[in-house]
Design a protein that fits this description.
This protein has about 450 residues and is of the alpha/beta class. The protein contains 15 helices and 13 strands.
């Protein structure tokens, strides 16, 4: 699970090659490198009011923003979070988009009533749509879904324009809107951070899933035949790096089993399955089950919960990994809560072993992230011309788990080798919680005023 640096170098080289191929030709690489049609990155001078709807997992947000006339200042923000029922995110097209539209329409009506602004109520609301799934972008406000991930499996959406689907659903809900920007969460995190700091060159998601949006020149993306844009213009590129798969990935038997049980995602998103919050907990569970079966980790009895998918979450994994109590009491508590294993049946040596097994999963996740990040930096030519660089990051794996970030720093230093001290000091990882919503809002506001 943690091979030597030489094998990681080969993986990094292959990822870089796949990214370059993805920039050159459409549908020629696992790493899709999709154009976003964002050719004017935020500078902090954007103003106005708009809404964002942000769907990137089984919860989604609707948000109202008022951008101040003062540079880089958000004057007002109101947010509502809504859980999507499983019957909806595994149901039909109309079920999903009607549910989203009804929630957004009700929220807009609440804000209009609160502001009591007749002029605003009469105008069609401006909406930015953050839709964090692979989309073939056709314009800033148009894109067709390429495929579902993150547990979603909604019929009748793949191949269709999701902006049109949302706009039609809003009309059915009695609240037509101008949906002016379509982005995914990594694009949103990038553009939100650009609004605050123009040194931002990457927006990264490290949570339920993983992805990155990077800044590079239009001239380096020959497959994008865009008109009216200078070749040296900087654009945002949606990498969809979670799609990468290769025999070079450090996979073990339990990873193969996890992949085989992933339904419509079998054989897809292979690097994401080694590093994202959706899969890390179940990978650790499968490893513990193997040890229980082969080495009697829990004695003669295998806890029933250990044989069931989703019985062990990534939050459970991280609590075990970060336990520094002398008797590993947090390890014991998680085992009791998730598997019904009583503390007095697990001795200290076994608790340490369980923590070590779980830590392998966490460290591998951070190492995969480091390999991807360094491949992007090589693509951007950053190591040849080092400069201050901001990497905006959202997602619970990065934001909530300190040790994961420590491991990431360790593996970045490993990758940079003798230049580690010089290069790591130039990179600033900027936590950008809920940045995807704000990024969508900034771009929609800019489009409304142009």
């Amino acid at each position: 699970m943690l091979p030597p640096r030489s094998e990681m170098q080969a993986l990094e080289d292959d990822i870089l090659k796949q990214m370059q191929t993805g920039m050159d030709k459409a549908n020629a690489s696992d790493i899709l490198m999709l154009p976003t049609y964002v050719v004017k990155l935020p500078t902090g001078d954007e103003t106005g009011a708009c809404y964002a709807i942000d769907i990137g997992g089984t919860n989604f947000r609707v948000v109202y923003y008022k951008l101040s006339d003062k540079r880089g200042v958000i004057e007002e923000q109101v947010m509502k979070q809504v859980a999507i029922p499983k019957a909806v995110y595994t149901g039909s097209c109309n079920q999903l988009f009607d549910f989203l539209a009804e929630q957004l329409a009700d929220f807009i009506k609440e804000q209009e009533a609160r502001h009591k602004d007749a002029a605003a109520s009469a105008a069609l609301p401006v909406v930015g749509f953050c839709f964090s799934f692979a989309v073939e972008q056709q314009a800033l406000n148009s894109g067709k879904l390429m495929g579902w991930t993150k547990g979603f499996d909604v019929d009748g959406v793949v191949g269709k324009d999701v902006v049109a689907l949302l706009s039609e659903a809003l009309a059915r809900a009695g609240k037509p809107c101008r949906v002016l920007a379509l982005i995914n969460d990594s694009v949103g995190v990038l553009t939100a951070s650009c609004y605050m700091d123009t040194a931002t060159e990457m927006g990264v998601i490290l949570g339920t899933g993983t992805n990155a949006c990077i800044v590079d020149k239009v001239s380096k993306m020959p497959k994008w035949k865009v008109k009216g844009v200078e070749h040296d213009t900087r654009t945002a590129i949606n990498t969809e790096w979670g799609c990468y798969g290769s025999v070079l990935l450090p996979r073990v038997k339990e990873d193969l089993e996890l992949d085989a049980a992933s339904g419509p995602q079998q054989g897809k998103m292979l690097i994401e399955k080694l590093m994202s919050g959706l899969y890390m907990g179940d990978c650790a569970r499968r490893l513990l089950l193997s040890f229980a079966q082969r080495a009697s980790l829990f004695g003669d009895v295998i806890p029933e919960a250990l044989t069931k998918k989703d019985s062990f979450s990534t939050a459970d994994l991280c609590e075990i990994e970060s336990d520094v109590t002398p008797h590993r009491s947090h390890v014991a508590r998680v085992l009791q809560q998730t598997m019904g294993v009583y503390p007095d049946t697990v001795n200290l040596e076994t608790r340490y072993l369980i923590q070590s097994i779980v830590r392998l999963v966490v460290r591998r996740s951070a190492r995969m992230a480091a390999v991807l990040l360094v491949a992007v930096l090589r693509l951007q030519g950053w190591q040849e011309a080092p400069r201050r660089l901001v990497v905006a990051v959202d997602g619970g794996v990065f934001l909530k788990y300190h040790n994961w970030r420590v491991f990431l720093d360790t593996y970045l230093r490993e990758a940079f080798g003798s230049r580690a001290k010089e290069l790591t000091r130039l990179i600033q990882f900027k936590p950008t919680a809920d940045g995807s919503s704000f990024g969508a809002a900034v771009l929609a506001a800019a489009a409304a005023s142009s």
